[in-house]
Amino acid sequence: VQLQESGPGLVKPSQTLSLTCTVSGGSITTNYYYWNWIRQPPGKGLEWMGAITYSGSTYYSPFLKSRTSISRDTSKNQFTLQLGSVTPEDTAVYYCNAGPGYWGQGTQVTVSS
């Protein structure tokens, strides 16, 4: 399974950050993975943001739940992260992940006016 993140590298404060993860080598509906979004702010550790399962159920970090939405497009084998009302503290490298050993390369997102 290979994962690739895509989306804008710069988002303005108060706007919505939207990233897409394109999956190849496996289906997001038949592989029994949790399809995760994880981020790493500069100088900090990894933070799990949420996940969507092969059946479409979603789970969110309680710290981000009010601002986070994860969805999927099964026709494109993609899943998407939306994070609303962003601030500079949301600046991070964002990764999509399907468990140990299955990571996208990460994409830098900077929140700045």
Explain what this protein looks like in three dimensions.
The chain is mainly β. It is 0% helix and 49% strand. The chain is built from no helices and ten strands. It has strands at residues 2-6, 10-11, 17-24, 34-40, 47-53, 58-60, 68-73, 78-83, 92-97, 107-111. Strands 2-10-9-4-5-6 form a six-stranded mixed sheet, with no helix packed on it. A four-stranded antiparallel sheet has the order 1-3-8-7, with no helix packed on it. A hairpin with a 4-residue loop joins β7 (68-73) and β8.
Topology record:
Blueprint: E1 2-6, E2 10-11, E3 17-24, E4 34-40, E5 47-53, E6 58-60, E7 68-73, E8 78-83, E9 92-97, E10 107-111
Parallel strand pairs: 2-10
Antiparallel strand pairs: 1-3, 3-8, 4-5, 4-9, 5-6, 7-8, 9-10
Could you write a compact summary of the structure shown?
Helices cover 0% and strands 49% of the residues. It has 113 residues and is mainly beta.
Instruction: Please bin the fraction of helical residues.
Output: under 10%
SS content category = mainly beta
Helix segment count?
0
Number of strands: 10
What is the H/E string? Answer: EEEEEEEEEE
The amount of beta strand, in percent, is over 45%
- Major beta sheet summary: 6 strands, mixed
Task: Tell me, briefly, the overall form.
Answer: globular
Strand order in space, largest sheet = 2-10-9-4-5-6
Whole-number mean pLDDT: 96
For the CA atoms, what is the radius of gyration?
13 Å
List low-confidence stretches: none
Terminal Cα separation, in Å?
Answer: 36 Å
